[in-house]
Design brief:
Blueprint: H1 2-12, H2 20-23, H3 25-38, H4 53-57, H5 62-80, H6 103-126, H7 134-156, H8 160-185, H9 191-212, H10 219-243, H11 252-264, H12 266-269, H13 281-318
Helix pairs in contact: 3-5, 6-7, 6-13, 7-8, 8-9, 8-10, 10-11, 11-13
């Protein structure tokens, strides 16, 4: 009976909405049986099982445990029939570590957090605080640190609120990168123009986050907006770097950052089961962005030094 159920599921579920694994009757029957045998009526607590404290702290309920156990049983059933690994609730199956759902993504998110914190310290050490755009890059760092913190939390435990914060904060980095690019290129614009641009970006971010938090999460719109703004920012940075390559030789760092950033983004497009059930393409993308962060800050440090020197030269001419 279970074989025929899996055959029907495998044949027709490709046209259904949702993930193959969690929609399969095999998984649903396992989930129902596990809940009846082990869980209280609300699905939160166990009947006759003492849960490890680290799982309790990370809010793994009895229903969550059933989902985790049935996920691997379903994966095994699919593999026994030489079928591809199914996704569950839009995600690949991962081996959890001490209650952490996606340990590789958590570790690499922390690695990016460390890269930003280390490089901003280097920035403060090498760049005087009276340099142009000094505080702009501090704001960029704070936005990035906040995003990587929420990325760590989300990949540790996936709840609606942690998902919203992860997506919202990730978008804030994309938007902040665009804002920094505009403020750098149009640094000499009148003050009211810069204030208007800043107000627009703040309002746009607030509106987008409010939209994401209202009702059903619109993944498609959020992804399209991120791609559009990210691509626009990358093209502008690359064009600016090309234009200033003779006058400011260090801009090659920015150009390489943009080129490599676009290259590693291919990992986000690839969608394959995790290697060793730990390393998926998304986690590898997190890993690749850490050294790129150091390269970008190196460009920022050189650029602030150049701007300060340029400012001092201009002031001497006025004197």
């Amino acid at each position: 009976m279970s074989v025929s159920i899996l055959v029907i599921t495998y044949t027709f579920l490709h046209i259904a909405e949702g993930s193959l694994g969690d929609h399969s009757p095999y998984y649903q029957r396992c989930l129902e049986k596990c809940g009846l045998l082990n869980c209280t009526d609300d699905g939160l607590h166990f009947r006759n099982y003492q849960q490890p404290i680290y799982l309790n702290l990370l809010q793994w309920s009895c229903e969550d445990e059933c989902r985790y156990e049935c996920m691997w049983k379903t994966v095994e059933a699919f593999h026994e029939r030489n079928w591809r690994t199914p996704q569950f609730y839009g995600k690949w199956p991962f081996i959890r570590l001490f209650g952490i759902q996606e340990p590789a993504s958590v570790f690499f998110s922390l690695l990016n957090f460390y890269a930003h914190s280390k490089m901003i310290k280097k920035f403060r050490k090498e760049v005087p605080d009276d340099s142009p755009l000094y505080w702009l890059w501090h704001a960029f760092c704070l936005v990035s640190l906040n995003a990587w913190l929420w990325s760590t939390i989300f990949h540790t435990r996936d709840f609606p609120i942690t998902e919203l914060m992860d997506y919202a904060c990730a978008f804030s980095v994309v938007l902040m990168s665009c804002y920094c690019m505009i403020m750098r290129i149009f640094r000499q614009a009148p003050r009211f123009v810069l204030v208007t641009i800043t107000t627009f970006f703040v309002a746009f971010l607030a509106n987008h986050v409010a939209y994401l938090g209202m009702g059903r999460f619109d993944y498609g719109y959020n992804m399209q907006l991120n791609i559009f703004i990210g691509t626009f920012t990358a093209i502008c940075w690359f064009g600016w770097s090309t234009y200033n390559r003779v006058r400011q030789p260090y801009v090659w760092k920015c150009a390489i950052f943009v080129a490599l950033g676009g290259l590693v983004m291919l990992l986000e497009i690839m969608d394959r089961p995790p290697i060793f059930w730990v390393f998926d393409c998304h986690s590898l993308w997190h890993f690749a962005t850490a050294p790129l962060t150091c390269l970008f800050y190196s460009f920022v440090i050189d650029d602030c030094k150049f701007l300060r020197k340029e400012q001092q030269t201009r002031e001497k001419k006025i004197d």
